[in-house]
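Batch job 17 of 40 flagged for manual review because the log was empty.
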Amino acid sequence: MDFDLPESAIAVREGVAAVAAKYDHAYWSRCEEEHRFPQEVFDDLGRGGWFGLCVPEEYGGGGQGLLELAIANETLCASGGVAGTFFYVTTPGFGAMTLTRHGTDEQKQRILPGLADGSVQFCLALTEPDAGSNAIAITTQATPEGDDFLIKGQKVWISNVENADWMVAVTRTIPAAETADRGLPRTAGFTLFLVDVKEALAAGTLSYQPIPKMGSNILHSSQVFFDDVRLPASNVIGEVDAGFAVLWDVLNPERILAAAGGIGTAEAALRIASDYARTREVFGRPIGANQGLQFPLAQLKAKTELGRLMTYKAAWLFDQGRPCGNEANVAKLTGAQVGWEAANQAFQTLGGMAYSKEYPVERIFRDARIAKNIPVAEELILAHIGTQMLGLPRSY
């Protein structure tokens, strides 16, 4: 058993850290305050090839795997740009990873070079208002019409639509209610499509409405409306009616990348708290000398290291083509929890000053909380661990 990172992963950590060092907490806080996409850091990472890590070399990418991508995301978040995890989840995760594994030759030739150099962005349209976390129950329908498909329906909490060139749209080509009548499993009848976002917006068949939200305002999260979006059959990812297998290859990397973001968030929060606790003196000594503050931070550092190990293991398993669902879920649960707990403890360490925008703790605090709910609520992960790993009975 070898716990040494490959040289490729070490190079990624050093390269992303060098880019991230140019953008301090004040930069990320300004972007958040202005509800502005951090275009400068995005372009900088794109030029360096840090979004194209998992794109095959023949398309201009780095030819690496999910492990390197997770380390890149962790490093960016640890620098203080914790909402930057959306960069890696949306474009390399939803875009490059999905097309590399399931795209046609034509799709790869058309899109992967732009993903490799950072000039193309992606989003994923899965969740719906009435389905929530129950992906089986989505109703957005893709109906064949000649050689094309027409997509009609609604999605919600879709991040990065405003910047995306392409969308991975998850649809039903067989309604959920009909699968049982046909003797098919509940997961049958899913089809994933590539949607040219700008083309569909211009045609007026796709629209979106940003949702005002508490944090992560460097990009929008939106309601998205499909009004007979017309797509050629060549835009199908994988096979018609068999998209759920492709979707799993989207969701597991998403959870692993989210876990890496949580680990990076914890590192950022712990660094701020520790720096403050070393220098802030009350009653004649640094507050970090008080075990009431020191021990909780030490406990969270230990949890961060444990979460990192599981995140790397899950990514490694995925790269080896081995089952990783259990590990991806445990990593995501742990990463989200430690990111939030570290942000919360950093708030407690700074006391009243954490409430001030003079410090970045309030931003990290807001951004870290949503990770316990997305991309999957921790209750569902616990249900998976209970039923699939412990063999306990299902409650539904």
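Reviewer: the log was empty due to a logging misconfiguration, but the result itself is present. Residues 66 and 315 are 5 Å apart (CA to CA). Unflagging and moving on to job 18.
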